[in-house]
Amino acid sequence: MIQPSAKDGITDKTVGWAVRPTFYARMQKITSQVKPSLGFDQGTLLLTGVAQGDLHAVFERNFWSWDNRVGAWRCDPIHYAMVRRILLGHFDGRFHDEVSRPPRVFWPKVDLPDLRPEQSEALAGWRRAGRRGQVIMPTGTGKTEVALAAMVEAQTATLVVAPVRDLMYQWHRRILQSLGYDAGIVGDNLFNLQPVTVTTYDSAYIHMDKMGDRFGLLIFDEEHHLPGPSRRDAAIMSTAIMRLGLTATPERSDSRHFDLDWLIGPVAYRMPFKQARGKTLADFDVVRIPVALTAGEQATYDQCSRLVRHFMTSRRKEQPGYMWRDLCAESGKDPVARKAQKAYYLKQSIEDRAAEKLRVLEDIFRLHVGQRTIVFAGSNVMAMEVSRRFLAPTILSHTRKRERLAVLDGFASGEFPALVANRVLDEGVDVPEAKVAVVIGGQASTRQAKQRLGRILRRSGNARATLYEVVCENTKEVHRSRKRRRSDAYERILHRRVLPG
Questions:
Q1: What local confidence, expressed as pLDDT, does residue 403 receive?
Q2: SS3 185
Q3: Nearest to residue 173, comparing CAs of 458, 433, 460, 405?
Q4: Which CATH number fits domain 117-271: 3.40.50.620, 3.30.365.10, 3.30.360.10, 3.40.50.300?
Q5: What is the reported pTM?
Q6: 284-293+354-497: what CATH class?
C-alpha cells in the first residue's frame, strides 16, 4: 500500500498513516456521534462510530486495522461496495456514507460502430458479472470498442489505465473521437483530473490516494500489468464498484494473474484465438527461417557459452540454487562474476545481430516489395542497425510522441514501406494495416508471440498474413523460438521451415 505523506500531519510509524490535522479534528467530532460514519481518507476507507469490541459483530472478515490517533478503523477502498452493503444491513441504513459519489457523465456524442456478435457477447458477459470482470480477446478483435460501449452504458465517471504513455494518449484520442469528450490526463508530467480521465499504471498507483473515490468505473487496458507489487494499488485504493479488464494474454510467469479475479472481477468473456482466425482476424502462415552464424560468430558464441556454464556450475556446487540474479548481484564486486555476465551479454548480442539475419531480411523485403512490413528486433541496437541498413524508420521506447505519430502516419500512407521496433509495439498500440511481420529476435514469452502476431492480423478482405521467424541455429534462440510459439494462437498452424539459399 502507498504510504501517504506526513508533511501536513502526524505520522505513527507503527500504523504507517499520516493524518491531516483538519481531518483529525473532524473525525473527533464525528466519533462522538451515535451513527457510524464511513469516509475516504488518503487511500483508505475510514470507519468511525464503531467500538473496537463491536467490529467483529458487524464484519465476519477481519480486514480492518485500528488507528489509535483518530479512534477509527481503516481498510482498503476496494472493499467499499461490500462494506457499504454490510453497514446498510446491520444499521438499517442509519449510518453516514461520506465517500464521494462519482458524477454521472453525459457524452456529447456517441459515434461507435455496431458491435460484432463476439463484442456484444463480451459486453453482455461483463454486464451479467455485475459489471466487474475481465474480457479476454485476441489482439485486433476490438476490445477497445467493447470498453467504449461499456463507458456509454455506465454513464459514470471513468478512469482508463494503460501500461504506457503511447496507449494513454491513444485512449485519449479514441474517447474524443468516439464520444466527443476531452478526457483529463494524469501522467507524463500532467495532472488534469476530469470525470473521465486517462492515465498509466505507474501514475495511477502514485496518485490514487488523491483520486481513489472519484470514479465509478475503472478500465484496465492490458490488465496483466496490474498484479505487480506496486501497480495493484491502482485497483486496491479505489472505491470504484464497476471494473473492466482487457487483455489478449492474462497469464503471468509469476502466477499473479490469479489476483485479477479479486482486483477486477472474474473472467466475463473469453474468445479463443481459433474462433477469431479467418473470421474476425485474417488467416495467416508462419514461416521459420533458420540461419547459421559465421565461423567467427560461432566460435565466440561457443566460448562464451562454456565460460558462463563453467561459472554457474562451479557456483552451484558451493551454493545450491544459485541463479542468474545472484550472478548479477555479485558482478559489481566479483571480477569473475562480472566476466561471466559480460560473456552472457556477448552471447545475446551475437544472436540478436547475426550477420546472416540482415541478408535474409533483405530477401524478405525483396519478396514482399510494395507490402507494408513490420520488423521486430530483439534489441534497440539491432533495430538501429536494421534502420541504417535499409533506411527504415524505428519506433523504440525512447522515441518521442511526435516522432512516433509521424512514423505511424508515414507507414499508414505507404511513405515508409517498412517499420522497425523492439518491444514498444508488442502491446495495444494501434498499428496501420500490415500483412507481413518479421521476427528477428525477442523474448521467449507466448504473450509476446501473440501480441506480435496480432499486429498483422487485422482482417482486410481475404488477404492472408505471413509471420517470418528468423532464428540462429545452434543457439539458445532455437529454444526461445519454440517457447514463443507455445500458445493457442499457433494451434494447427503449418510452420514452414525455409532454408536460406
A1: 87
A2: strand
A3: 405
A4: 3.40.50.300
A5: 0.79
A6: alpha beta
